[in-house]
Write a structure and sequence with these properties.
Length: 437
């Protein structure tokens, strides 16, 4: 689960913009072109967090339904091709080659079973949300994570900072990561309360210790002189940190205790016109699941290195985010296709459900996804300006519409109480919100 920037499209307006030296997308291009080749087990470097800032900014609770501007969320949808576009252009339209150092055993691709729309009529509910505004306008909020104390951690792409929201006081504190290049994508918190993140443009996995306010960076390999571009990341039940590499088409595992990094080559689906490894999740049985912007999802067995691909109905479907449920099923969002997908590993069946629309336009801009203990599936729907709950037992979609027009709900995270936190990238009022359904 994560987001990337398009060098030519502004996230909040959907308009093409000139690249300037201070624009975050220029750093993406720079990283893709100039990062020197490195090894898989690069040395670890430590840096004290710099430029710490703190402020308090909290807004009132909101709960009314409003319409959205289609051009805004469409612009965000196009951003998922940002770094990928740079890679394609820098390689003359060709795809990356991959090393056989960690070659995987690949089984034939399985076929998908297509499903229509849900039979149940969608429910539309005014979200009873609490909103926390940020001191920086248009900060570029990415994938959040919540620690055991209820603090919300998130990368701010446009300001090149890691931010912490104290949900009790509303205080927002920020730190600038070492050698950051405006590329913090996803965040995760470990059992010790340390915050981990992918810095896509600087090509490393980062760790921040709130107790010491110290950063540790784990540099990643380069591919043909280009960044491997880490995107999504998640901890498994054993405490290992898994991540995807867009540029290298690899799945990585970092041992937080030793700092050792191992990568596996991921097979590319052959049916798509282009496919980029993007999203990631794990299951309690130790299996690792990955999704492509390009019509397929797959399973990696870390013990044997075997992989299995499963095709979606549309060979070019963009699987943006993934999450496993208590039954061991894999749920995913299709960014532009407006579908919620599910794979049952027991049968190999892929089901795709068209998300109903609450506006005159088809559903699109489906972003982050999480599953809850009661079996519900939640995802962000930018076109509906809503957080959506899907109940698998009866096929019910419930749209919790946000009060801020064109909020662009993006990243999701659950806290220990079951509250759902989200990031919103509306222009210019980026904010962090929470609902307690």
């Amino acid at each position: 689960m994560g987001g990337i920037r398009n060098p030519d499209v502004d996230k909040r307006t959907g308009k093409r913009a000139a690249i300037t030296r201070n624009d975050s997308s220029s750093h993406i291009a720079e990283a893709a072109r100039s990062v020197r080749r490195g090894g898989q087990r690069a040395p670890v470097s430590d840096d004290v967090g710099a430029e710490r800032t703190e402020s308090v900014a909290e807004g009132p609770a909101k709960g009314s339904s409003t319409s959205i501007r289609r051009d805004t969320w469409f612009g965000l949808g196009m951003l998922a091709l940002g770094v990928i576009t740079v890679f394609i252009l820098s390689h003359g339209g060709s795809s990356f080659g991959s090393s056989n150092r960690n070659a995987a055993i690949t089984r034939p691709i399985a076929t998908a079973t297509q499903s229509g729309s849900s039979a149940a009529q969608p429910r539309i509910i005014a979200a009873q949300e609490r909103v926390y505004s940020l001191p920086q306008p248009a900060a570029g909020l990415m994938q959040p994570a919540v620690d055991a104390q209820g603090n919300v951690w998130v990368g701010m792409m446009q300001t090149n900072q890691l931010a912490r929201l104290d949900s009790k006081t509303g205080a927002v504190t920020t730190w600038t990561p070492p050698n950051g290049k405006f590329g913090i994508m996803a965040t995760a918190v470990d059992a010790q309360g340390r915050v981990w993140f992918t810095e896509q443009n600087a090509n490393y996995i980062g760790r921040f210790d709130p107790a010491t306010q110290q950063f540790t960076t784990y540099p990643l390999e380069a591919v043909n002189g280009h960044a491997s571009a880490p995107q999504d990341l998640i901890f498994d039940k054993a405490g290992m940190l898994w991540f995807t590499e867009i540029g290298a088409t690899k799945i990585g595992r970092l041992d937080p205790t030793t700092g050792a990094i191992i990568t596996w080559d991921a097979p590319k689906p052959k049916s798509a016109s282009s496919a980029w490894l993007f999203s990631l999740t794990t299951l309690p049985d130790g299996s690792v699941w990955f999704g492509y912007l390009g019509g397929a999802l797959g399973r990696l067995d870390p013990i044997t290195g075997a992989t299995q691909l499963y095709a979606t109905g549309d060979a070019n479907a963009q699987l943006y985010a993934m999450a496993g449920d208590a039954q061991g099923r894999i749920w995913f969002t299709e960014l532009s296709q407006g579908k919620l997908g599910m794979l049952d590993p027991a049968t190999g069946k892929v089901t795709e459900i068209r998300v109903p629309t609450t506006t005159s336009a088809p559903a699109s801009g489906l972003y982050d996804i999480v599953t809850t203990r009661d079996g519900s599936v939640w995802f962000a729907d930018a076109s509906a300006n809503a957080l959506v709950r899907y109940t698998p037992q009866n096929g019910q979609f419930s749209f919790y519409q946000l009060a801020e027009p064109s909020s662009i709900p993006f990243g999701l995270a659950l806290d220990t109480t079951g509250a759902l936190w989200f990031t919103a990238d509306s222009n210019p009022n980026n904010y962090i919100g929470v609902i307690r359904p």
